[in-house]
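batch job 7 of whatever, protein = YbaK/aminoacyl-tRNA synthetase-associated domain-containing protein
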Amino acid sequence: MVDEGVVELEERVAALDTRLRGLESVARVVLDIRSRQVYSARLHRAPHDYYDWTLADRAYVSTCSSGTSLALLMPPSIVRRKFLQCNVAQLCKSIIMENVAWKSDMPHVPRFVCVIVQYKAKINSDKVAKLIRDASTSVKISRKQVNFQHAPPDTSALLTGFEFNGVSPFGMSTALPVIVSAPVLELPYIWLGGGAHDVKLKVSVTQCVQSLSAIAGDVSESRQHAPTTPLQN
């Protein structure tokens, strides 16, 4: 029979370990933001059940036809879910893509890239490959040398130093080329992972692209239907 006290202690230790790792990874994000002088950046802690919410619940407070905030007409339990005060289009994520065609004799071809894309869109691997080929000006990259797929979660964690739902393009353990999906450029600012599961980063799109020397291009496509159920990633 397992001692309940031992189980509870183990759970507390595990939670503390996760919390400490989160603090370290968020600290890396902060240091990188400061070193790059990204003055628009802001970090916000999300509620523990943030990823149980729909995208609309995470994003904004709507207004009715009279211009009155619907927050005044909603019960507190719903208002609290309008957390980030933005449009759903501004909710973005950083995805690590792996070039599975990469070989050690191809130093001019990136093996991994970090792609910033909207939650309401999905990455098109063929478009990522084309953008990488077109962006190479010094050495020609052939079609056979690029085949980008989502990197496995453990690979992403190893490269970035961030756990699932906490990946940020700032403060990654390994410097990776950053790609920004073209529709993101139309936005004034976006929300990204802030280094930990419960930390979100708000940043100006212009400063994000410039400070990371990111490549911008058409690498995504709209989802056929807007997600109505909670999404994680």
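notes: The chain has a mean pLDDT of 83.
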